[in-house]
Amino acid sequence: MTIEAQKLELINKIALLQDTLLLARVKQILDKAEMRTSSPKPRQAGWGKGIFSNVADDFDATPEGFEDYMPQK
């Protein structure tokens, strides 16, 4: 059964429900699912500042053995 067919089957079953408590529970489940699929919060610049507190002095230096791969200055 395709996902589209599954969705239609669920829609039909929900449309036939008469129990208000069961309808409220279905709504709760759908609301939770909607929260999980909502778009993520936008990134905030600078959130990682201070995470890397100990960076080696030669961080930008060419590692030993990789000299041949570096462009000539």
Could you explain how this protein is built, in words?
This protein has helices at about 5-15, 20-35. The radius of gyration is 28 Å and the shape is elongated. The model has no long low-confidence stretch (mean pLDDT about 85). With about 70 residues, the protein is mainly alpha-helical. The protein starts with a helix and ends in a 36-residue tail after the last helix. It has two helices and no strands.
Labels describing this entry:
73 residues, mainly alpha, 2 helices, elongated
Q: What is this entry, summarized?
A:
The protein has helices at residues 3-16, 20-37. The protein has 73 residues and is an all-alpha fold.
